[in-house]
Amino acid sequence: MSNEVCCSSESLSLPPLVVYDPHMRRTDTLIFLLLLVGSGLPGQVHAATQATEPPSPSWQSCLEDLRGKALAQNLTAGTVDAVLGRVEQLPRVISADRSQPEFTETFADYYRKRVTDFRVNKGRELLATHAGLLQRIQSTTGIPPHYLVAFWGLETNFGTYFGKLSIPSALATLACDTRRSAMFTRELIAVMRIIEAGDMAYDELIGSWAGAIGHMQFMPTTFLSYAVDGDGDGHKNLIGSIEDALLSGATYLLNAGWQPGFRWGREVVLPDGFDYALAGLDQARALSDWRSLGIKDAFGQALPSVNLNASLLVPLGHMGPAFMVYPNFHVIMEWNRSQSYALAVGRLADRIAGAGRLHHPLPDISLSTQALTRLQQGLNDLGYSAGKPDGVLGPTTRKAIRAFQRANNLVADGFPNEQLMQLVAAQSNSASGAE
Questions:
Q1: The CATH number of 9-255 is which of 1.10.8.350, 1.10.1200.10, 3.30.930.10, 3.30.565.10?
Q2: 3-class SS at 323?
Q3: What is the per-residue pLDDT for 432?
Q4: Coil/strand/helix, residue 165
Q5: DSSP string covering 209-229, please?
Q6: Residue 22 pLDDT more than 60?
Q7: What pLDDT shows up at residue 51?
Q8: Which residues have C-beta within 8 Å of that of residue 141, sequence separation ≥ 6?
Q9: Is 103 helix (H, G, I), strand (E, B) or coil?
Q10: Which is nearest to 215 in space by CA: 257, 173, 161, 296?
C-alpha cells in the first residue's frame, strides 16, 4: 500500500497498513507505487535480495543494538538471532526511501493508471470466484465484497505483485538508517513476533521495500493488531492465504469505523457559478446543505435525503470531476492517507459492482515539480504566501492559488493550469522589472 513511505504510527488512530510519508511527493506518484509493489514475483526474490555492498562496521553495530532492543521486548534469543543472523543490508531500500520524482502525478494520471479496464474486469471475476468467502466476511464485519476486492486490486493487483525483497532485510536496513529508525525498529520487532508465533516463516516474508506484507499490504505492526486466521488452520498468513488476507482487511476497516449500509461517496455535478472555496475534506457539512446549494449526482438527480455529513472534493479543480465523500471515505484514508488513493478505491469498488465510467471526462494536465516550484516562487513574489517553493501542491499552495484566482477574476478552485502559470509568471516578471 502506497505510494506511497508512511505515516508514523502516531499520526493515525490505527497502525498504518503502508508506509506513507505526507511530505514525500510519493503521495500520488506512480514512481512510489512501482517501488512499493515491486516489479517481480515472489519466486524471483533470491537474486534480488543479495546485498550489493559488503556489510559495514556500522551495520554490524546496528544489528547488535537491534538485538538488545528485541530481547528487551521479551522475544526469545533464538528468534532474534535467527532473524538477525540472516538479514542483509540492502542499499537499494535506502535509495527507494530517498527517491523523489520529477513530476507530480495529477489525479487524472493516478486514476487512469489504477482504475483500469483490466482491474474492473478481473475484480468482477474475483467477486464471483470468491463470492462465498466474501459474503461470509460481510456477514461478520459488514464490509461489502466489492470494497475488499478493490483494495486487493490496488494493493497487489489481486495478489500478483507482492514485491520481491526480503521484508526482514528491508526493515533492518531502514531501522539502521537514521531517518526513521525508531519506526522501522518497531516494524522489525513486529516481524520477529510474527515469526516467533509461527504465523509466517522468514522465507515467506517477501514483499515491498517498505516492509508491507501480503495481498492487502499490512505493515507488521498492523499485522499484529488486525491479522485474522480466516481459513481456520491456526495461522495468520497474509501471503499464502487469501481467506486470512481478506478477512484481515475487513477486520481493519471495521475497527477503523466503517459504517455498514453507506457507500464511500459519489461523483456529483456542480451548479454554474459554484464557490469552489467550499471544497475540501476539512469542510464537511450536512448532505441537505449540499442539496440546497444545487449539487446533484452524476445523473442530474437530487442527492439522497440522508442524515449524513459530507465533503466536496475537486481533485482537478473546475476542469475535472467532482466528488461528494462520506464518512466511509475517511475510513479508506485510514488505510492510506492519499485522497487520490481513496477516490480510486471507491471508484474501483463501484465499477466492480457494476457502475459505469466517470461522467465527467478526465482532462489531460501535466505538472512538473519544476513548474510548480516556479509557480510557488511567483506567488510568493506577488505577496500570495504559497509556502516554501518545493514543487508540492499542498494546502498552503492551493490557498495562495485560490487567492490569486479571485484577485484576477478566475475560477477560484485552487488548482494550477497553464493559463494560471503564465499569468503568475507574467505578473511576477512585471513586478520584478518595475523594481
A1: 1.10.8.350
A2: strand
A3: 77
A4: strand
A5: TT--BTTTTB-HHHHHHH---
A6: no
A7: 42
A8: 247, 250, 251, 253, 254, 258
A9: strand
A10: 161
